[in-house]
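Sample intake sheet
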Amino acid sequence: MRTAYRCRAYPTPEQAATLNRTFGSVRFVWNRTLAWRHTRYHGEQANAYLTAMKATDELA
């Protein structure tokens, strides 16, 4: 069972600016990752990442 809680925050202007910057960064990373997964799913550039991973000593 999932439980949800609703709460309200009243940040100061400085905290609001920090939150906006943080959420903007998270949104950017999410969108880039989503685009990468979409590209991989449709078969474009699938081998480029595999080749790069094979070039590392750790994953070779």
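Comment: DSSP finds two helices and no strands in the chain. Residues 23-60 form one domain.
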